[in-house]
Each structure stands twice: as structure tokens, then as C-alpha cells.
Amino acid sequence: MEKAADLDYLRDYNDALVVAIARRSGVFDRATIAAGTGLTPQAVSKVVARLLAAGLVEPDGVRRTGVGKPTTVYRLIPTSRYAIGAHVARRTLRLVLTDLVGEVLRTIVTPLPEDFTPQHLLDALAEGVTTLADGCRAGRLVGVGIGMVGPLDHAEGVVRDAHRLRHWHDVPLRDLATERLGMPVLLDKDVTAGVTAEAWRRGTTFRDAVLIMVESGIGSGLWLGGSAYRGAHTNAGEFGHMVVQLDGPRCVCGRRGCLEIVHDQARARGDVDAAARVLAVGVVNLLQAIDVDHVVLAGADLLPHADAYLGAALAAVRAEVPRVDWLTTEVTTSSLGTDVIAAGAAMEVLNEEYGPLTSPRTAAHA
Ligand SMILES: [Zn+2]
């Protein structure tokens, strides 16, 4: 019995590895897969046969190299599987439908009542998922990923305390949504989903990065050493609650002078430039602590003023990081705009089912 489970695991693992490679390379042949995974040609043939049977790949012609036999070339079928991603913000629920390669096909935005309850969210989620699932053929929808404001526990699927939402204390949202929707659900911090989306789009050079989101609060998603970094309690990245002013105003978290409250007060005064400079100080603090080479700025409260925030962050990085000739950091805005969190949550579902973005080079052998 245990042996059968092991074999299932190895089979799924190797299939996922091949899907991950195919997703990156577009078309592939058996030799590319063998070279990329270390699997034997026989094992690769078995994987490809399974993926063909599952409808995930299809032949895409033949390639002739030298005098040998022509080689069949395959391609991943993007519309063979779909995932839905949800971005739960304080006033809105944004849902996207993505295909197997993470392209956003449809977006729905629903307002949420002020200070919404878990029941409000589940109702809105069920309605939106039904609408998006309508266009998908049976069996092709893999699951739903939810990116939500924290603090929350990704491993347990529990929202611990969503800042500024009264009804969200120890809510087992993942299990509640799984039961309501009748399909696999994954829960992660909004910012971690966001940085996952950027990593999907930017490829293997995106290894050490941070996504900073300004949207009813300030948070950061960390991507370190080629994968999402969540920390000991899956609560890493509470960037907005780093203190930047010791005797500053009282923050929603209870401390004084947090970056978030100092930033928000500047925005409330209408001083976007001052707010951008506060955020820029935080960016430099973060660079000093974790040495990333990509900073991605995102969030509905930031993107309309992207030039001011980008300018301030770039100026601060140049002025305050010693040796900019050596410590190079690229600062950009999100490549997916306001869909980035929802899209990333969908990509996390696809990662779970069809292999990590950063696949290990070596396959598992029985
Ligand atoms: Zn705070």
C-alpha cells in the first residue's frame, strides 16, 4: 500500500516537472525533457504518454536534425486547465480566470460591504466563481487560490487577524471556501500571491525580489533564492509595520510611527510626494536587510501615482545604498497592474498541481 503511494507520488512529481519545463519553453521534445530532468528516455516517454492522455500536451509537428529519425515536437495546451484567483481587499473582491500558463482570461470585480463578514465573502466568492467557471469545460478547473490581507496562516489556511476588519479573527477561510465551492482552495497573503505572479512572468532571473503593495495598507511579498519566502509563521513581509518614526502617530497595529501610518497621513494631506518618500525610506531599509535585486511596486493606491513612487524609490536607492555600481537593484511597477494579486493566487494553485516554477533539475526515480 505504501509502495503504491510512493509510486503515485513519483509519477505526479515527474509529470509536474515536465509540465513546468513545457510551460517555460513552449514547445519541447523528449530529448529536451531528458536533458532538463535527468529522466531516462523510457521514463520521459511514459510521462509524455500520460500528459497526452490527460489532454495537457499535443503533438506540434516533427523536427529533423541531421540524418537521424525525425523527432516529434510537443506543446502544452494552455486551455487544457484553468485556475481561478481571488484578491480579497478591504472593499472589493477581484476574481480572475487564468489558463494553464497563467494568462488572465477574464476579470470580475465585486464590491464588498464595509467591514464584511466571512459569510459576505463566501457568498460573493461563490457567485463569482460560478460565473467564471461557466466557460470552462468539465474537469478543467483545477481550483481557487485566495490572496488576502493578513496576518494569516498560509499553512493552516486560517486568517488570524485581518487588520481593519473586525470579523476576521481566526477564521478558517480555506476550509470554509473548500466546502462552499466544492473544489480545492488555497489561501495565502495577498503580497505573497503578488510576488509569485511577478516570478511567473519574469522567469529565472527573478530570484531575489520583493513586491511592495500599497492598497488600504502597506505590505511586502518576499521571493528569496527562487521561491516565495513566508517565514516561521507564514507571516513574513509586514513591511508597513516597520517603525520609521520613533515618536510617530499611533498605527492600527498598536505601535507608533509605523511606515504605513506615516505614509497614510501624508496621503491624507494630499502630499503624494511626501508619501512616496516615506515608502522609499522603507524600500532602502529593506534592501539593507535582505539584499534583493528586484523591487516591484504594486497596489491600487500606488499605481495611479506610479511616477511619483518610482521616482522617489529610485532616487533613494541611488542616494542611500552604498556602492550602487555593485549593489544593483531594479525598481519597476507590477507587470500585471491591479490583477497581480488575484493572478498570483491562481498561479499558486497551478504550482501546487502542476509543478513549481523553479523546477529542480533532477527528477525523482523509483
Ligand atoms: Zn503598524
UniProtKB/TrEMBL annotation:
Record flagged with keyword Transferase: yes
Pfam family of the protein (one): ROK
Alphabetized UniProt keyword annotations: Kinase, Transferase
GO molecular function, one term: kinase activity
Domain of life: Bacteria
InterPro entries, sorted: ATPase_NBD, ROK, ROK_cs, WH-like_DNA-bd_sf, WH_DNA-bd_sf
Family: Belongs to the ROK (NagC/XylR) family.
Protein name, per record: Sugar kinase
Organism: Planotetraspora silvatica
